[in-house]
Amino acid sequence: MSKVLFTVQYEVLSDKRSEYITAIKELKSLISAEGLESYSVFEVKGKANTFEEVYVFASQEVYENFDDAEDERINVLISKIESLKAHSSTKYLTLLELE
Length: 99
Fold this sequence. Notes:
This protein is of the alpha+beta class.
């Protein structure tokens, strides 16, 4: 089974940075799923208020089923984080491991 690396990069509005940090720390403590090997958040060096979330999934099947997990608090946090982002700054990337 090939692992899947999924990344989401975005810019947070500068006046919303501290709200973002609080929300993302809580989100990090809540996100888990069978087959999610890791979830990390990084700040992009040299790009103020630009962050990248990195998910590592054990397989493509786990990746495809990840959004199916329903957790109300996680959904609230994701909505909040979305509201703190700069308009049209989100970029997604999905990588499949070679076997």
